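Proteins fold reproducibly. Next comes a concrete instance:

***
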Amino acid sequence: MAVLAVVTAFGLAACSSKFKTYNGPEVTEIFVFKGTRKMYLMHHDRALATYDIDLGFAPDGHKEQKGDGRTPEGTYYIDRRNPDSAYHLSVGINYPNTEDRERAKEAGVSPGGDIFIHGGPTKSSDRNKKDWTAGCIAVTNKEIEDIYAMVRNGTPIHIIPSSTPIPVMEGGESTVLVAGMAPEVEGTLAPVPATGESAIVTDELPSIDDVLAAEAGSATGTVVIGEDVDLIGEGEPVE
């Protein structure tokens, strides 16, 4: 069962700046599920954080060309970051890759680009609107501050199509099976005893604001990501 927890000794340090430092478990990969509009920052088979997300204004299907409003699908990597983003902060996804460029070339169109995970809307018309981006993955400004600090360049991100079924396994746990999907996803997730398939158990993942309070005097207590904690140092952008 994935658990959202950050050990007090390895938390996020906050200050008045939007930049934070993070000394917790490494984010080894990111999973984005279009169908449930959820994003998980994973440490191997354990979820460090989960977020509700918005997608492009035409969210279904893989991005094929500039201006189509779709969010890409498949496995990509975080390859850059923008501390001066128009949407507070952002981390970039390496779309288009070689296959995307070749597909667009054959179709005689531009594949587009500039796909990021970023903060909330700046236009009043986009506030409280679902799936308002041009193809990016959006969270709140507070949440992107955590993501910007936690996620390193080179981190794989798996964007799962809405069409991927979410079956209910024995015990009523909602799972997302990844068997038969991108090979690089295989072997990174915990097996489900009922089937032996690789899966992420999503039904009991706590939200980021539901982390258990630290027990008094406990060295393994947890802190709420995004809340003020004892400063480890001045918050600086992650290189």
